[in-house]
Amino acid sequence: MRNNSIIALVLLAALAACSSSKVYFSTQVRQKVENTGTPLTQLQYYVDRDVELSREILKDETKVTSGVVRFENGKNLNIITLKRNTPGVCTKVLPDKVYISFEIGDDKFLTFGKTKYATESAPYKILANSWIGDYGAITYEGKSYFIHSGTDASIMIKTSELNNEEINKRQMKGRTILTNPTPPPASVPSN
Q1: Backbone angles phi, psi at 50, to 5 degrees
Q2: What residues have CB less than 8 Å from 97, skipping those under 6 apart?
Q3: CA-to-CA distance for 128 and 137, rounded, in angstroms?
Q4: Alpha-carbon gap, residue 107 to 142, rounded angstroms
Q5: What pLDDT band is residue 12 in, cutting at 50, 70 and 90?
Q6: Which of 57, 115, 173, 191 has its CA 20 to 30 A from that of 151?
Q7: Residue 87: left (phi > 0), alpha (psi -120 to 50), or beta?
Q8: Beta bridge partners of 98
Q9: DSSP bridge pairs for 43
Q10: For residues 94-104, b (16+ Cβ closer than 10 Å) or e, as one string?
Q11: Which of 90, 98, 99 is nearest to 44 (CA)?
Q12: CA 103 to chain centroid
């Protein structure tokens, strides 16, 4: 029985170590990264939960560029999903927000930033142009979408990015005594 307890503790410690490999991106974390001189566009970002974008396809539309089309409640919907832990890159940096792109293409980004009443340690959350009830209205691929689920999504970075300091290190070579030192020139007193 005691061995089972020890094994359980070791497994819990291992799981805790794995889960702490990422940290939420917040104003505090952003300042730490910027203080190291690392550009925010050079970090790898991850979304912390599933996000689903949806929009109604109008009858005169002939082309859907991404996502799936689903017929629901008499409407054709275009749905784009973003799975938890999907990696993304920062394409634009603004004072209190960043544009994170999870796929290649123009206008294919989500905005994450500091919300109105957020503290310095609060994670950057997904932002919308406007809110209608529980749904955030955004523009994606130049079209209007609603954040159907994942309205509390945040971004994370790897913990190792915080320690990305540049360290210049060298070893002193040492000095030896010269065998025939040349005496310094005598100084001549001036009158």
Answers
A1: -70, 140
A2: 111, 112, 113, 114, 124, 127
A3: 6
A4: 6
A5: very low
A6: 57
A7: beta
A8: 93, 112
A9: none
A10: eeebbbbbbee
A11: 90
A12: 14
Average pLDDT of the chain, as a whole number: 81
Q: Kindly report the backbone phi and psi dihedral angles of residue 121, in degrees, each rounded to the nearest multiple of 5, phi listed first.
A: -95, -5
How sure is the predictor about 21, in pLDDT bands with cuts at 50, 70 and 90? Answer: very high
Q: Strand 75-82 vs strand 51-56: parallel, antiparallel, or unpaired?
A: antiparallel
Query: In the numeric block, which tokens belong to residue 134?
Result: 């529980």
Within a 10 A sphere around the Cβ of 109, how many other Cβ atoms? 22
Q: How far apart are CA 52 and CA 60, in angstroms?
A: 24
Residue ranges in the chain assigned as alpha helix (H): 2-19, 27-35
Query: With 60 as the cut, is the pLDDT of residue 71 above it?
Result: no
Q: Please give the Cα distance from 45 to 76 (Å, whole number).
A: 32
The dihedral built from the CA positions of residue 92, 64, 57 and 68, taken in this order, carries a sign that is negative
Tokens of 46: 């991850």
CA 11/CA 41 separation, integer angstroms: 36
Cα 28–Cα 25–Cα 19 angle in degrees, nearest 5: 115
pLDDT at site 102: 97
- For residues 130, 135, 138, 140, the Cα torsion angle rounded to the nearest 10 degrees is 180
Question: Where along the chain do its domains lie?
Answer: 20-57+68-163
